[in-house]
Write a structure and sequence with these properties.
By secondary structure, the protein is an alpha+beta fold. The chain folds into 3 domains: about 200 residues, Distorted Sandwich (Beta-galactosidase, Chain A, domain 5); about 70 residues, Sandwich (Immunoglobulin-like); about 210 residues, Serine Threonine Protein Phosphatase 5, Tetratricopeptide repeat (Alpha Horseshoe). Helices cover about 25% and strands about 35% of the residues. The strands form 7 sheets. An 8-stranded antiparallel sheet has the order 9-10-11-12-21-17-16-15, with no helix packed on it. Strands 1-2-3-4-5 form a 5-stranded antiparallel sheet, with no helix packed on it. The chain has a 4-stranded antiparallel sheet with strand order 8-14-19-18, with no helix packed on it. A hairpin with a 3-residue loop joins strand 22 and strand 23. The longest helix is centred in the last third of the chain and has 17 residues.
Length: about 575
């Protein structure tokens, strides 16, 4: 195949459209489209020429109408000569939306869970110029006057060698007060089956997959010929001057009698004893694995071309599963069941009147999914990235931890402990952390965690004498416990054990021994050594300060479960509860 080229250019398109009229409103309370006028169908049609922007490569042609809200009006699959979107002979306005009329056509951006007030108006547009023939073709769409404080920039692009459309959104609250928000896409595709991610019409032999990472869309609906992918299951808020960035890939499928499974890379169909595979780009030397009902695995080397459907006669084989892998053995498509799918999927219905101003309490027990979703909210973003970094440290992924802490610092650069934990992560990753330590020292020069990092960054010394670097901390012995709790909270049990071992040389505090016992149980399963630490701690007089930190309380609860007959632990747990 010759070199693929993607291009973007302006054109014109004649459309038969229905006309609308404005309706005066006397009361703003009933004026849902304020500040835009309400509309009603006029009952007449006429042919009009619209300025369009075309994105085109050898496989796709995407037609965008800046004068109709910036919607994608056509997604034409040149590989099979198929229009992916549901098109009508004329664009007829129907009753609906806050302004009184809606047009059920194309792909358009949503900002607050409902059709934008300017969905039928003009948006600004600019073709991206790169000067590189091998680069992707792209256009920027922008709307500032939306009737609210929210504006957007939308980048739509296609690569030169793939049958995919990439969309990047940057939504901004321009005002200094929160705004209702639930962005996403509305896509009109007509009747067909939908599995929650991919739509396909067997009648038109056309479909579309919507693929995004990190759970960009929580609200998904398929009703009345329309797919709606929304950021959340209900309306939330965009904080003052907050920017929400998200991206997705649209993957068209066509020419297949049905779809048995799909991914961002390919789709497969089992039909009448044949296997058909459609790829989004040229893939040479790949391997296809079929699992038969007898439990056998059949393997075949395949070359895939986006302009052609790969058809393989099965010759009586009844496969129950399929896997497509590239030469590096990365899975591009997996089907664990070939029974097909319908739109009996579990829908996440959108509740347009729900407003959620917060995401809930985040802590060390929050799942990765909860934390990733929490990175959307500026009120929880800093904390969410810190907790993701701590999880990475606990899982011994210091490079990922450093990146998470860096993200946290982008939104709250005044946090000295975030600078400290990033410095720890970089040290464990054998990277340079001097800038992070300098920033932390600037913000909090007496932070005990920084003194601890000075000690922990030194080579391990087996001497039994106390390290003079930490002598000053003995004046405030609770700082030994504070640092131990910080290290445990970050999931750094080995670092905490080393720290506590050194701290005990300076001050023999019962809580340090309990925390050492907790580290031994959690990280090494050395229960005998942990038992010794609990015994030694219990021999010291019961005296304040009593445990109050979350890590202390959690550790004592865990130790009481491990040593239920220990009377001192029972007494301490009575005190803390």
């Amino acid at each position: 195949m010759s070199q693929s080229i993607a291009e973007a250019f302006e054109d014109g398109l004649d459309l038969q459209i229905g006309l609308v009229q404005t309706i005066p409103q006397d009361s703003r309370s009933a004026w849902l489209g304020y500040p835009f006028p309400s509309l009603a169908p006029l009952g007449e049609e006429e042919m009009r020429t619209f300025r369009t922007i075309i994105l085109e490569n050898p496989f796709l042609r995407v037609t965008i109408l800046p004068g109709m809200g910036g919607r994608i009006i056509s997604l034409f699959d040149k590989r099979t000569g198929t229009e992916i979107l549901k098109r009508h002979p004329s664009i007829v306005p129907l009753a609906g939306s806050r302004r009184g009329v809606t047009v059920r056509e194309g792909i358009q951006l949503i900002l607050d869970g409902e059709e934008r007030l300017n969905a039928l108006g003009n948006v600004s547009s600019q073709i991206e110029v790169s000067g590189d023939e091998e680069s992707e073709a792209a256009v920027w769409l922008s709307e500032t006057f939306t009737g609210t404080g929210i504006s957007f920039h939308l980048r739509i692009s296609i690569p030169p060698d793939q049958a995919v459309v990439q969309i990047e959104a940057r939504v901004l609250n321009r005002w200094l007060k929160p705004q209702p928000y639930n962005a996403g896409l509305s896509i009109y595709l007509g009747d067909g089956a939908f599995d929650g991610q991919t739509f396909y019409s067997t009648d038109r032999r056309a479909g579309l997959g919507v693929f995004a990472t990190d759970h960009v869309f929580d609200g998904v609906e398929h009703a009345d010929d329309r797919l709606s992918f929304l950021r959340f299951g209900g309306v939330r808020e965009l904080a003052p001057r907050q920017v929400d960035n998200w991206a997705l890939t649209l993957v068209p499928y066509s020419g297949l009698p049905s779809i048995s499974g799909s991914s961002v890379d390919a789709a497969a169909s089992f039909n009448d004893g044949n296997l058909l595979v459609q790829s989004t780009q040229q893939r040479l030397g790949h391997k296809l694995f079929l699992l038969t009902k007898e439990g056998n695995t059949l393997e075949a080397k395949v070359d895939l071309y986006p302009e052609n459907l790969l058809e393989i006669p099965l010759d009586g084989i009844s496969p129950t599963g399929l896997v497509l892998k590239d030469p590096a053995k990365k899975e591009l498509l997996r089907l664990d069941s070939l029974t097909g799918w319908t739109d009996t999927w579990a829908a996440k219905k959108f509740e347009p009147t729900t407003v959620v101003s917060h995401i809930g309490i985040l802590n060390r027990e929050s799942s990765d999914l909860e934390l990733k979703r929490a990175t959307y909210d500026v009120s929880t973003r800093h904390l969410a990235y810190i907790l993701l970094g701590m999880k990475a440290l606990h899982e011994k992924r210091p490079e990922d931890a450093a990146l998470a802490f860096e993200q946290s610092l982008m939104y709250n650069a005044d946090d000295p402990l975030a600078w400290w934990t990033k410095a720890v992560a970089l040290r464990l990753a054998e990277g340079d952390n001097q800038a992070e330590l300098l920033n932390a020292h600037y913000l909090a020069p007496l932070e005990p965690a920084l003194r601890a990092e000075s000690f922990l960054s030194q080579p391990i010394n087996l001497d039994v004498d106390a390290n003079p670097l930490l002598t000053s901390l003995a004046e405030n012995p609770e700082e030994f416990i504070e640092v131990a709790c910080l290290l445990i909270e970050a999931g750094l049990f080995d670092q905490a054990s080393r720290w506590i071992d050194e701290a005990l040389r300076h001050r023999d505090l019962p809580m340090l021994r309990y925390l050492m016992a907790y580290c031994l149980i959690e990280a090494t399963r050395l229960d005998a050594e942990a038992s010794d630490q609990v015994r030694l701690a219990g021999e010291a007089p019961l005296a304040p300060p009593f445990p109050f930190r979350e890590v202390e309380i959690h550790a004592l609860n865990a130790l009481l479960k491990a040593f239920p007959n220990n009377s001192r632990l029972a007494l301490l747990n009575t005190l803390i509860h």
